[in-house]
Amino acid sequence: MNMPITNLAPIPELYVSYESSQKLKVEAADLTSWDMTPRQICDLELLMNGGFNPLKGFLNEADYDGVVENMRMADGTLWPMPITLDVSEKFAETVELGQDIALRDQEGVILGTMTVTDKWVPNKSREAEKVFGADDQAHPAVYYLHNQAGSVYLGGPVTGIQQPVHYDFRARRDTPNELRAFFRKMGWRRVVAFQTRNPLHRAHQELTFRAAKEAQANLLIHPVVGLTKPGDVDHFTRVRCYEAVLDKYPASTTTMSLLNLAMRMAGPREAVWHGLIRGNHGCTHMIVGRDHAGPGKNSAGEDFYGAYDAQDLYRTYQDEIGVEMVDFKHMVWVQERAQYEPADEIEDRDNVTILNISGTELRRRLAEGLEIPEWFSFPEVVNELRRTRPPRAQQGFTVFFTGFSGSGKSTIANAVMVKLMEMGGRPVTLLDGDIVRKNLSSELGFSKEHRDLNIRRIGYVASEITKNGGIAICAPIAPYATTRRAVREDIEAFGAFVEVHVATSIEECEKRDRKGLYKLARAGKIKEFTGISDPYDVPESPELRLETESVDVDNCAHQVILKLESMGLIAG
Ligand code: PPS
Fold first, then answer.
1. Ligand 1 within 6 A of CB of 406
2. Is the CB of residue 530 below 6 angstroms from any atom belonging to ligand 1?
3. I need a surface site. Which of 11, 92, 414, 500 has the fewest CB within 10 A?
């Protein structure tokens, strides 16, 4: 590939003119509307502003099939990621082919319209296998596909009315054409993009410097602020960290812009997708490092993708992507030379001390309030991270008891609450099954749908408590593993989630029958009774499993307290 030079002419957007948009907005108010999910809003923004050029809307069935099977749309254009409008079956039934629908954000604002040309039920297992490499729900996008995405896909061209509004970091957000105009104005002919979803530390700075030098290019720090991997550092903190690091780059050669992309963590395919998106933003080069957009381990505990699979796939399609890859190996600190070097280029590795702090180790040090050395990161970045992630013993957390009715959840939860209040330091809230059903969920019954809603409500309140530094103790039956996992994800964004399975057997619960409900359930007077006529998914790997049959309440509560102590959540 010859050294590429940008063609900075504007790329097509899907927006109509201001006048037409005002008219269209009024007309669209009468259309059937779809309230988009956060992921769909991210996708729509990049469709409308040309970030996903040459896509003209959400994929139709033929394009979807091609993209899933061989990364190509029906006309042969390279596109590795299915950009689909997934909806519920109920909504899909209200939509006819050829009909226009309004696409609304979560506050109800109409952002665009779509003419529905296709409607189909996708084979999600095939999509998982082909796009993400395995139908394994340990992969966040596969989990999303099976548990959060609607069961029907709608496809068709989109007409853009207005951009989603962002109130945060406005000056740092640019459409592809705004970035192109900026590069044009600055006379930047070669631009290397650095994609990231993590705070920048010294190794990243070294890597980006080297990449810019190698490509003889200017540098665009292009972090993703849409949706990243569950559990990542939130984007507010990250952007404050980026701002701090940006001062350490020469202002005339480097800039930063925020990308509202919803990542899929699809490794190799994601790298190709990122390349196409960066091309649309006027970049000529992109850095692809080790384990680009990696989702972590699969359910067998192995990596989903090889560390350099993304680089290999990118290389295969590089000419078509039109954005040259600057590939980087892992950067490590060489103590004797006091500098970062690519791990594979160190020839005297037996004679030098090589240091590295992994993401997991960094999280541990932050959680435990331990030292983070200067060679690893910048003090400003560490301060920001410490502000958002104080040591675990000062963070909020949730203890989530689950088990059959009458298993002893409420009694143990009460005892734990009292012990924690005795210790003091953080406010404690008990969200017991019965209390919640009186106050938050009084209109709900015990169907799967209602139980899920009930647990999601408990999860929502617990996540708010956790976010604000309190302790939430929940004690519902919560019979469904997928719902418990969803709640875990919501809460782990802010603090620890400690699942405690109160493993009293159904026989024992029935024998105790404290409320006389089992008798009624056996007699068929209470329907859908957990363990009798309704399912209970036994937690596979809770943080703690309590056997209650020969142990008293005080001892069970004590085991919970010991667990919290061993996790560093309460001071020993
Ligand atoms: S769930 O599944 O998590 O939403 O259930 P939860 O909110 O914890 O409510 C369980 C309490 O409601 C009583 N109850 C029933 N439980 C299970 N199945 C059926 N059909 C049912 N009908 C009423 C029961 O007393 C549960 O209280 P606990 O505290 O668990 O004994």
1. yes
2. yes
3. 414
